[in-house]
UniProtKB/TrEMBL annotation:
It comes from the Bacteria. The chain crosses the membrane at residues 55-74, 86-106, 112-132, 144-166, 178-199, 234-258, 270-289, 301-319, 350-368, 380-403, 409-431. The keyword Isomerase does not apply. Keywords: Acyltransferase, Cell membrane, Membrane, Transferase, Transmembrane, Transmembrane helix, Transport. It is a multi-pass membrane protein. This is Phospholipid/glycerol acyltransferase. GO terms for cellular component: plasma membrane. GO terms for molecular function: acyltransferase activity; transmembrane transporter activity. Residues 464-580 form the Phospholipid/glycerol acyltransferase domain.
Length: 635
C-alpha cells in the first residue's frame, strides 16, 4: 500500500467483491429511502396516511431503530461466523425485503413501505459489524486508512447515485400519470440481486471466535457490548465521536426535503442536488484522508474536520437566513435555483461541511479497527452501530421538537453547528491525543514537506525505545507527527518547565530529566517513569546526545539507553532526521529561532527509521553508528 495507490485495492479479490457488495447495499438503501421520502413530501395525497412535514424524520428513525435493538446480536454473529458466508446470507435477505418494498410502491401502501424501511434497517444492522471487521482481516495496517477511505467514498458515491436515482425514479411520470413508484420497486429488487451476485466473490473470512456462545437477549448483550467498548478509553471515545458525526449528518440529510421546499423554494430535483453535493463532499474528504495522513491513522485530522464542520454549518445558517421564504406553490427547478449566487454559497457550505466530515470520520474508523482486539472487533463495531443509532434517533427527536417549537431549518443548522463545537471541545478535553496530533500535524505540514522511510520498523503494538539525532527544537514534533503511535519523549527539565509550554508537555506525558549533578532525585524518577511506560507497552523516545548540535555533527551518545534496556529489555529503533540543520529551529550560525525565514517555508525533511536493535546489542557506540548510517551525508 505504501508503494501504490489505494485504488489498486479495487483490482484485488480480497477487497473488490466486498467493496461492490457494500456499495450496492448503500445505493439500494438510498434509492428506497429517498424515493419514499420524496413521494410523501411531494405527492402526499397518494399516501394518505403519511405526514409530509415529519415523514423524512420518521423514516430515518424507523430505519435506525434495528441498530439499537439488534446490533449487539449481529456483532456476536459476525464474530462467530465466516464473514463471507454471512454477507451472502444478508444479501439473500435483502432480495426478499425489497420484494415487500416493491409491493408497497406498487400498491402505494404506506404501512408496507414503513415495514420495508424497518427491515432494511435490520439488513444494514446485520451487515454493519461485518463491514468494518472484514477490512482489518484482509488489509495490512498500512492499507487500513486507504481501504477505509475507499469504503467511505464508495458509500457516499452510492448514496449520491441512490439519491439521484431514487428521486428521479419516484417522480417519473408518463402522459401525466405518476408511474415512478413501480419502477422504483423493480429497481430496488434488481440492485439487491446485483449485490447478491457480487457477494458470491467475497473470499473466505474465518470467524474470529467460532466457539462464541451467542446471547440472544438484546438488552443484556447491548449493555455488555457497550461495556466491552468502554474498556479501551480511546476506542470508546472514538465511537462517541463517530456517533456524533452521524447525529450531525442525520440532522442535515433528513432536513433537506423541508429545507429545499420551504426555505429555498426548490422542487424535488433541488433536494437531489443538495443530497448529491453533500455526498460528493464527504466522499472526496474520505479519499483525501489518505493523502493528508500519509497512509497512517492520522487522528490529527479529527479536530481539523470538526473545526471545518462547525465553520460551514454556522455559515450555512447565515447563507440560508438571507433567503426570503418562498410560497409553497412556487417551486424552482435546478436551472432556476443555480441562477442565484446565494444558492451557490449554500452549495459551497454543504460541500465543505461534508468534506470536513470525511476528514473527521475516516481516521476514527481506522483507529477503532487498529486498536480493538481482533477476537471481539465485530462486537466493538456493533457497539458503534448501537451508539450511532441512538445518536441518530436523538437527532430526529431534537429536529422534530425544535421544528414544532417554531425553529426554522436554518436555525436548526445553527444549533447543530454550535453543538458540534461544544462536543468537539469536550471530546478533545477528554482525549488530548486528538488535539495534540492536530497541532503537530498542522505545524509540520505548514512549514515542512516530510518524507518518512521505514515507518514499518516501529512495531504496531508493544514497547520500544526510539533513539534519534538532535538537530533542532522541533525534532520531537517531527517524530511525534510521523510515528503512528503515541510517543512519550524524554526531555530536559528546564524546557519542560517553560511557562505556557509546560501544560503541553504534561499533556503529551513527556518525561522531564536532569543530570545527576543537578537533581539526582529527578534523574531517578525519570528512569522509573521510563521503565513503567515501557512495561505498559508504550513507545518512548530519547535524544541520546543530550543536547542540540551546534555544528551539525552528532554529539557523542550518552549511556542512558543501555541503563534503560538493562532494566527493561525492549527493542531499540534507530532514527535519523535529515534536512533540519540550517532551519529556523537549529543552531546553525548562532542561537536558534533568532532569524525568521532563514530558509523559507515547505523545506524538505526526511525521517529515516532503521531496523530495531535487540536490547542485548545496545550500546552508545552501536546506536550512534546506526543513526549516523541512516542520516548519511545530509544534515
Amino acid at each position: 500500500m505504501s508503494q501504490s495507490s489505494q485504488f489498486s485495492l479495487l483490482k484485488q479479490r480480497r477487497f473488490a467483491p466486498f467493496f461492490w457488495t457494500q456499495f450496492l447495499g448503500a445505493m439500494n438503501d438510498n434509492v428506497f429511502k429517498v424515493a419514499f421520502s420524496s413521494l410523501v413530501t411531494y405527492h402526499a395525497a397518494l399516501f394518505g396516511n403519511a405526514d409530509p412535514a415529519s415523514a423524512a424524520f420518521l423514516i430515518s428513525a424507523i430505519f435506525i431503530a434495528p441498530f439499537v435493538l439488534l446490533s449487539a446480536t449481529s456483532g456476536q454473529i459476525a464474530d462467530r461466523m465466516d464473514k463471507a458466508r454471512l454477507i451472502r446470507l444478508v444479501k439473500t435477505l435483502e432480495i426478499a425485503i425489497m420484494a415487500i418494498g416493491c409491493a408497497g410502491f406498487a400498491l402505494r401502501h404506506v404501512e408496507l413501505l414503513y415495514l420495508c424501511t424497518f427491515l432494511m434497517g435490520v439488513h444494514s444492522t446485520l451487515f454493519g459489524p461485518v463491514k468494518y471487521a472484514y477490512l482489518p482481516q484482509h488489509l495490512q495496517s498500512a492499507e487500513l486508512v486507504g481501504g477505509n477511505g475507499l469504503v467511505e467514498m464508495g458509500t457516499f458515491v452510492a448514496i449520491l447515485i441512490g439519491t439521484i436515482g431514487g428521486g428521479e425514479l419516484a417522480n417519473y411520470t408518463r402522459n401525466g400519470e405518476l408511474i415512478g413508484p413501480m419502477f422504483t420497486g423493480i429497481a430496488c429488487i434488481a440492485i439487491a440481486v446485483a449485490g447478491w451476485m457480487t457477494a458470491r466473490g467475497v473470499p473466505v473470512s474465518p470467524a474470529s471466535q467460532p466457539d462464541l456462545r451467542i446471547n440472544w437477549n438484546p438488552i443484556s448483550e447491548t449493555w455488555r457490548n457497550l461495556k466491552l467498548a468502554g474498556n479501551q478509553r480511546a476506542v470508546f471515545l472514538s465511537l462517541l465521536g463517530i456517533s456524533w458525526l452521524w447525529f450531525v449528518g442525520a440532522t442535515f440529510l433528513t432536513s433537506f426535503f423541508a429545507y429545499a421546499r420551504n426555505v429555498l423554494g426548490g422542487d424535488q430535483n433541488v433536494v437531489t442536488l443538495l443530497l448529491a453535493v453533500f455526498s460528493v463532499g464527504i466522499g472526496l474528504g474520505s479519499v483525501l484522508c489518505e493523502k493528508l495522513s500519509g497512509r497512517t491513522v492520522e487522528i490529527g485530522l479529527v479536530p481539523f474536520g470538526s473545526i471545518g464542520m462547525t465553520v460551514f454549518a454556522v455559515d450555512l445558517y447565515f447563507a440560508s437566513h438571507a433567503e426570503a421564504l418562498v410560497a409553497h406553490d412556487v417551486l424552482t427547478g435546478i436551472s432556476g435555483f443555480l441562477q442565484s449566487h446565494r444558492h451557490w454559497r449554500v452549495l459551497a457550505d454543504l460541500f465543505l461541511l461534508a468534506m470536513f466530515g470525511g476528514f473527521y470520520s475516516v481516521p476514527l474508523y481506522a483507529l477503532i479497527q487498529s486498536r480493538s482486539e481482533p477476537t471481539h472487533r465485530a462486537r466493538i463495531i456493533a457497539a458503534n452501530n448501537i451508539l450511532n443509532a441512538l445518536f441518530m434517533i436523538a437527532s430526529a427527536v431534537l429536529a422534530m421538537v425544535l421544528t414544532r417549537a417554531g425553529f426554522t431549518i436554518p436555525q436548526l443548522f445553527l444549533v447543530t453547528g454550535i453543538l458540534n463545537a461544544v462536543v468537539a471541545i469536550y471530546i478533545y478535553t477528554l482525549v488530548p491525543e486528538f488535539l495534540i496530533r492536530f497541532v503537530m500535524w498542522l505545524l509540520i505540514h505548514t512549514v515542512y514537506r516530510v518524507k518518512v522511510e521505514g515507518s514499518e520498523q516501529i512495531p504496531d503494538e508493544g514497547p520500544c525505545l526510539l533513539v534519534c539525532n538532535h538537530v533542532s527544537f522541533v525534532d520531537a514534533v517531527v517524530v511525534g507527527a510521523f510515528v503512528r503511535r503515541p510517543v512519550r519523549f524524554v526531555m530536559d527539565h528546564r524546557i519542560f518547565k517553560v511557562p505556557l509550554l509546560s501544560w503541553f508537555f504534561r499533556t503529551v506525558k513527556a518525561i522531564p530529566i536532569a543530570p545527576m549533578h543537578e537533581d539526582p532525585e529527578m534523574l531517578k524518577r525519570a528512569y522509573d517513569t521510563i521503565a513503567a511506560a515501557l512495561a505498559e507497552g508504550e513507545v518512548v523516545c530519547i535524544f541520546p546526545e543530550g543536547k542540540i548540535t551546534a555544528t551539525g555533527e552528532m554529539n557523542p551518545f550518552k549511556d542512558g539507553m543501555r541503563r534503560i534496556t538493562e532494566r527493561t529489555p525492549v527493542p531499540v529503533v534507530p532514527m535519523a532526521l535529515r534536512g533540519l540543520w540550517g532551519s529556523f529551529f537549529s543552531r546553525k550560525g548562532g542561537a536558534a529561532m533568532s532569524r525568521p525565514f532563514r530558509r523559507g517555508f515547505l523545506n524538505k525533511l526526511e525521517l529515516c527509521i532503521g531496523t530495531p536493535v535487540p536490547a542485548h546489542a545496545v550500546s552508545p557506540e552501536t546506536m550512534q553508528a546506526a543513526v549516523l548510517a541512516l542520516r548519511g551525508e545530509r544534515l
